[in-house]
Amino acid sequence: MTTYRHTPRQVEELEAFFVKCDHPSVKERQELSEKLDLEMHQVKFWFQNRRNQMKVQLGRQNNCFLREENVRLRAENELLWETMKKPLCKDCGNPSMEGQRLRAENIRLKEEINRFCSSINGTGF
């Protein structure tokens, strides 16, 4: 199989079309192949590869976000554990107000992560 490098002009044209439509029809691919002096399969594979690149980039961004979120939740978890180690309020016997606030915030963050993960799973990741 021969490796083919597209010219800068071809890449520019393909990218411009990709911005408008990432799944060109057979007719559109035919027009692009004629306009750019490429074979039909070259255009087809270029779009397939470009869509895969976009998917990988989005996955990396999502992974980065989830890693940062994980670090934040771990730090919050440590705070919760430290708060839980503290004795109960001497007057009312309940956990401190700070502990209650942190627990509520932890629940909210977990729900937010679940919604985010659900939206990712809905896009095919």
TrEMBL record:
<dbReference type="InterPro" id="IPR017970">
    <property type="entry name" value="Homeobox_CS"/>
</dbReference>
<protein>
    <recommendedName>
        <fullName>Homeobox domain-containing protein</fullName>
    </recommendedName>
</protein>
<feature type="domain" description="Homeobox">
    <location>
        <begin position="1"/>
        <end position="57"/>
    </location>
</feature>
<dbReference type="GO" id="GO:0005634">
    <property type="term" value="C:nucleus"/>
</dbReference>
<dbReference type="GO" id="GO:0005789">
    <property type="term" value="C:endoplasmic reticulum membrane"/>
</dbReference>
<dbReference type="InterPro" id="IPR001356">
    <property type="entry name" value="HD"/>
</dbReference>
<dbReference type="GO" id="GO:0000981">
    <property type="term" value="F:DNA-binding transcription factor activity, RNA polymerase II-specific"/>
</dbReference>
<dbReference type="Pfam" id="PF00046">
    <property type="entry name" value="Homeodomain"/>
</dbReference>
<dbReference type="InterPro" id="IPR009057">
    <property type="entry name" value="Homeodomain-like_sf"/>
</dbReference>
<dbReference type="InterPro" id="IPR042160">
    <property type="entry name" value="HD-Zip_IV"/>
</dbReference>
<keyword id="KW-0238">DNA-binding</keyword>
<dbReference type="GO" id="GO:0003677">
    <property type="term" value="F:DNA binding"/>
</dbReference>
<feature type="DNA-binding region" description="Homeobox">
    <location>
        <begin position="3"/>
        <end position="58"/>
    </location>
</feature>
<keyword id="KW-0539">Nucleus</keyword>
<keyword id="KW-0371">Homeobox</keyword>
